[in-house]
Structures are given as structure tokens and as C-alpha cells.
Specification:
The chain folds into three domains: about 260 residues, no CATH class; about 50 residues, no CATH class; about 140 residues, no CATH class. Helix content is about 45%, strand content about 15%. It contains 17 helices and twelve strands.
Length: about 475
């Protein structure tokens, strides 16, 4: 055996193989699977475990809110396509499903089963007209020695409906022990889910109507008559028990009290349930700070950022790339689908970077690199630095009343124009001065009347305004420029 392998590897290849040699074996190995290796109890777990329900709903609903956009590749650039046919299809997948419901169910199916399937119905021209979500527990993959996947079988009430491979988009999570199906997080969380479920059942049974535990027992060791026994019960209840408590009485001699209630050690299961909750949420990628009632505002913000960066965004990338691979080829080449990048950015770090680059770059360079804005005719000049005043007189096109938004402000000597500009400058100045005392405030000022180029230069000047005097000087320079 060793000599055979040695002789085989002596024949070194000078080019790559045209086909992977293991595909046929993989197809043959999986051909005997008539049903998907899915846990049929996953839906019951989702409905019966509060923390599984919370985790899956948080992920699915948050993911369904993020917009998906289609871009055309032009070299290294991505050019956005407004109202692409795929975007219109996703906004109305089928007569029974909305866009939110489609993505909510798709993401939820991935979390619950590890797989999600879209069936594509065509419009007769070779493009999808409807998208229907298929239940993963009803779908079986049929392997093929050449095409890897020959198709799918959808089973309802014992009837198997064949589906072509081109008609189905299969989203799946990674499964280390399966070539075709994904692995559900519930498989990893099974122990924690079962333990939490059993502890919840024990808790319910303990305090249920038919499983009550008396507060204690009053034992009377010496024999007494019925009259004395009833009198003793009345006196004991009137003094100690009251009408809201039940106390067990036994006939006997001397009276003895025995406590049989639950101890603090017996009630320690609450901490155990909390540990099971944390384990379940961690498996699904939900930071505990998002659901903990004791989380501070700072902890909740950190938890939300971790959830978006490490849990939600990677799941969206998985879906977008699968749509790019299997859906967008219906509409042509060089198309990609991408979700909006919802990962939080460090606002202070970005501001420091802009401040560092500000003296070295022109207005157009700043617009392109940091704000993704197109160049303007007046933006080739350097912006300046700390040693140069930021505000400058308006360019000629701004003096003529052009705002850059396609809406005329009127002539600069008109009362409406002057009033709108002066009022907005005054509002912006008050806004900037108030924000100096609020370091956590990051909301930008909403510009409506000022020209784009003037608003941009004011914003750039405020980057270096660390005190009230500098803020006032920025607006004083703007007003002086307006008067020229």
C-alpha cells in the first residue's frame, strides 16, 4: 500500500484537475438518505423553550429589517441599481408573503433547522416571478455524480413532489458531519434546552394545584378528645396560620412543630435556570446584556454592538452571497447582492481620522473618501489646517442662489434668501455650542437652507472647534463671507 502511494505521487501534475475526484463518491455515499437528517422536534423546542423562542425571534426579526440592495460590478467599484427587478420581487415575493415575512422565516428556519429553501416560480421569460419558502423538514436533497445535486423532493402526506435544482435556492449552515444539510444551533443547545425544560416542569409541578406542600405539621403526641382537637386547631390558626395558610394536624401526645417547607438550597434551581438561559443565548449568539434586567445602559449598548457585529451581520452575509450565487444569474452577469453594512462604527475614531487628514486633503478628496459624495467644481482647493481659517466666501454658483440640490434659494439680495440663511446659521451655532457640553451627542445638524458647499465647509470647520470661542469664530467667518 505504501509503495503504491509513493509511486502515485511521483507523477506530479503540471495543471489542475478539471473536476474534483471525490464528488462521485460523495454522491454515492449520500444516495441512500431518503429523508433529511433533521430533528423533527425542533419546532416543538421553539414553541416550548422561552429562551430558544427569544433568541430566534431576535435574530430573525432584526435581520428582516435590513435592506438588501443589488449592485453592478465595474472593476473594483460597485454601482447601485435603483429598483432592480430582484428588489421588486423581494418586496412582494408571493401573494401570501411580505418581504419581512420572507426573510424572517428564512433566517428563523436557518436558526431552527440549519437549512432554508426558496422555491422559484418563473415568469415564462426565464426570470423568477414568485418566491415560496419550503419547510425544511419536508425537503430531501437528491445527490448527483456530476451535478452534485440532481434536485429535491418535497414530501406532503406521503406524496413526493420532484423539484429541479435550478428551481430551489438552498441556504444552509455549516455541518461538519454532512455533505448536503446544515446543522441547527438547537443540536448544540439540546442539553441546556432539555435541562431548562425539566427545571421549568419541576417548578410548575412544585407549585401546582395538585402538588401543594403544607407549611408545617403540628403533632399532638398525647391523645385528646375531638372537642379539644377542634379547639386546638381553631386557636392555632387564629394565632399563627390565618385563613391563607394550611397547616397539617396529627393526633398524639405532647405537641411538636416540624418544618417541612422548601429550604433555600431547594430553591437554588433559580440560579440553575439562569445558567441554562445564558448557555442557550450564547449558543445562538445573543449577548446576555440584551435580555438581562440588571444590565446597565453601557452594558446594553456593548451587547447590542456585539450582537450586530458578531451574530447578525455574518448571517446576512451568508444569505446575500447565496442570493448572488443562485438568484442574480437570472438577471445577467456582474451583479452582486449586499446588505447595508449595519456594523457600528467608532464615531470618535472616525472623527479623529478625518481631523488628521483634513489639512492634507482637498474638499473633493474628503467628500469621496469619508462621505462617498461626488466631486464638485469648487472642491479641488485644499481645505486647510489649524493655521488656516476654514470658512471662505461662497463660490460664484452659490452667490447666484444655487444650492446643489436643484432648488433655487432666490437671489442673494432677496429677503427670503437672507432670512433663511441667517436663521439657519443662528440655529446651527446654538446647536454646536450646546453640543460642546454633551460629549455623547453625535446627531448632526439638519441643513435645509444653506448651500451644500457652505454646509460642508462649516461642518469641516467645526471638526477643529474644541471650545466656544472657536465655534463662534467659524460662524463669524461664514457670516463675513456672506457679506462679501
Amino acid at each position: 500500500m505504501f509503495n503504491w502511494l509513493t509511486d502515485f505521487f511521483r507523477l506530479r501534475r503540471d495543471r489542475l484537475r478539471t473536476r474534483a475526484p471525490h464528488i462521485e463518491r460523495v454522491a454515492a455515499h449520500n444516495s441512500h438518505f431518503l429523508n433529511p437528517p433533521l430533528d423533527i422536534h425542533s419546532a416543538r423546542v421553539y414553541a416550548g423553550s422561552p429562551w430558544v423562542y427569544v433568541a430566534i425571534n431576535r435574530i430573525a426579526e432584526a435581520g428582516a429589517l435590513v435592506p438588501l440592495k443589488v449592485y453592478r460590478l465595474a472593476g473594483e467599484k460597485r454601482i447601485g441599481i435603483e429598483n432592480h427587478p430582484l428588489e421588486r420581487l423581494l418586496s412582494h415575493p408571493n401573494p401570501l408573503t411580505s418581504r419581512f415575512e420572507l426573510f424572517e422565516q428564512t433566517i428563523g428556519s436557518l436558526e431552527l433547522h440549519g437549512n432554508a429553501y426558496w422555491f422559484l416560480a418563473g415568469d415564462g421569460r426565464g426570470q423568477p416571478r414568485e418566491i415560496w419558502l419550503l419547510r425544511p423538514d419536508r425537503v430531501t436533497i437528491v445527490p448527483h455524480e456530476q451535478r452534485i445535486v440532481a434536485g429535491y423532493l418535497y414530501e406532503i402526506n406521503g406524496e413526493r413532489i420532484p423539484l429541479d435544482a435550478i428551481e430551489v435556492v438552498h441556504f444552509r449552515r455549516w455541518h461538519p458531519d454532512n455533505d448536503f444539510y446544515g446543522l441547527s444551533p438547537i443540536a448544540a443547545a439540546r442539553g441546556a434546552v432539555l435541562s431548562d425544560r425539566h427545571m421549568a416542569d419541576w417548578n410548575r409541578n412544585t407549585f401546582g394545584q395538585d402538588h401543594g406542600v403544607p407549611a408545617g405539621i403540628v403533632s399532638i403526641k398525647d391523645f385528646i378528645s375531638d372537642t379539644d382537637f377542634e379547639r386546638l386547631k381553631r386557636e392555632w390558626r387564629s394565632r399563627y396560620g390565618g385563613g391563607s395558610r394550611r397547616t397539617a394536624f396529627l393526633r398524639g401526645g405532647a405537641i411538636e412543630w416540624q418544618h417541612i417547607g422548601l429550604s433555600h438550597c431547594d430553591l437554588d434551581f433559580l440560579q440553575g435556570r439562569q445558567a441554562q438561559r445564558d448557555e442557550i443565548l450564547n449558543i445562538f449568539g445573543i449577548p446576555v446584556g440584551l435580555v438581562s434586567e440588571n444590565a446597565t445602559e453601557a452594558n446594553a449598548k456593548v451587547a447590542e454592538r456585539q450582537f450586530i457585529e458578531r451574530t447578525l451581520y455574518p448571517k446576512l452575509v451568508r444569505i446575500a452571497q447565496k442570493i448572488t450565487q443562485e438568484l442574480l444569474p437570472f438577471y445577467g452577469a456582474d451583479l452582486v447582492a449586499e446588505y447595508d453594512d449595519i456594523r457600528p462604527t467608532d464615531a470618535q475614531a472616525r472623527l479623529d481620522e478625518i481631523r488628521t487628514a483634513y489639512p492634507l486633503l482637498s474638499i473633493n478628496e474628503l467628500r469621496a473618501q469619508y462621505f462617498q459624495l461626488p466631486p464638485v467644481a469648487w472642491g479641488d482647493t485644499p481645505v486647510g489646517g489649524d493655521s488656516h481659517p476654514i470658512p471662505r466666501p461662497l463660490p460664484q454658483q452659490a452667490r447666484e442662489g444655487e444650492t446643489g440640490r436643484g432648488e433655487p434659494l432666490g437671489r442673494p439680495d432677496s429677503a427670503a434668501h437672507k432670512s433663511a440663511v441667517e436663521n439657519e446659521l443662528a440655529q446651527w451655532e446654538r446647536f454646536a455650542l450646546n453640543r460642546l457640553d454633551r460629549a455623547e451627542q453625535t446627531r448632526p445638524f439638519e441643513v435645509t437652507a444653506l448651500p451644500d458647499e457652505l454646509a460642508f465647509e462649516v461642518s469641516a470647520g467645526l471638526l477643529f472647534a474644541r471650545d466656544r470661542e472657536r465655534v463662534k469664530s467659524v460662524f463669524a467667518g461664514v457670516r463675513a463671507g456672506l457679506g462679501d
